[in-house]
Amino acid sequence: MNKLISFLTILFILILFGCDSNEKQDNQKSDDQVSNQENNSDKKQDNEKEDEEDNGNDFMKGMKNFTDMMKQGSKVETVDFRKLKELLPEELDGMKRTGASGEKTNSFGIKVSQSEGKYKSEDGQQNIKITIIDLGSMKGLTGMALFAWTMEEIDKETEDGYEKTTEFKGYKAFEKYNTKNKNGDLEVLVGDRFMVKGEGWGVDMDEIHNALGLIDFGSLESMKNEGKKDS
Questions:
Q1: Could you tell me which of 220, 178, 199 has the C-alpha nearest to residue 119?
Q2: Average pLDDT, stretch 88-117?
Q3: Is residue 176 within 8 Å of 185, Cβ to Cβ?
Q4: How far is CA 130 from the centre of its chain?
């Protein structure tokens, strides 16, 4: 959840700076036009006053933009994390579940619900974590920085591993794997609302695939309209 809070903070700052930058560009164009077409000192003074007023409104405009973006998901009540927790496998092939948790948060009007399961081999050398996140009230932000791959096509390979957008059980997904460290991630977007993420340490990518394959994606997708309210 700390990542979500950090993301919201960065997003707010970017909106403010973006608004300020656009306003300054518009003001600069306005100044150039006045300089070229008008030499009247009174008009210049009036323009300077208007510039000051516009700059003074940057913060309020940024706040309005931020609030409007937050409202995109304000009409969705997230699924109870306990229901998401029920979808976590009791155990994986050769790994026992060592912990299961869930939580629901509400930051800046954005509601997020998630469950998490941790799995470990008997010798402790292999670990997998599965996270199921309900992005219901972040629907308008899904394609942004938090999960930017949902709006991209990626196919990259290096000596250390690879990362690519792909499909998993018919859903758009993103996976990356470090062949040297044998660490990998697999993220799957379900019903344009739920993010299922598998993270593995000391395992092959197939083991992460197998772990997420134990989740009932059909049941998860059936919840995609749960908690939605009419406009």
A1: 199
A2: 90
A3: yes
A4: 17
User: No. of H helices and E strands in the chain?
Assistant: 6, 9
Give 135-159 pLDDT, tens digit per residue.
876 655 544 556 778 888 999 999 9
Q: What is the pTM of this model?
A: 0.69
Give the amino acid at 27: N
Which DSSP symbol is given to 201? Answer: E
Q: Are 97 and 130 in contact (CB under 8 A)?
A: no
Range of weakest confidence among 5-14, 76-85, 107-116, 189-198: 5-14
Q: Which of 118, 127, 116 is nearest to 84 (CA)?
A: 116
Q: Cα–Cα distance between 183 and 188 in angstroms, integer?
A: 17
Domain boundaries, the chain: 2-71, 81-221
Q: Please identify which residue in the block is written with the tokens 């919840």.
A: 223
Torsion-angle region of 163 (φ positive above 0: left; ψ -120 to 50: alpha; else: beta): beta
Does domain 81-221 fall into CATH 3.40.50.1820? no
pLDDT at 224 over 50: yes
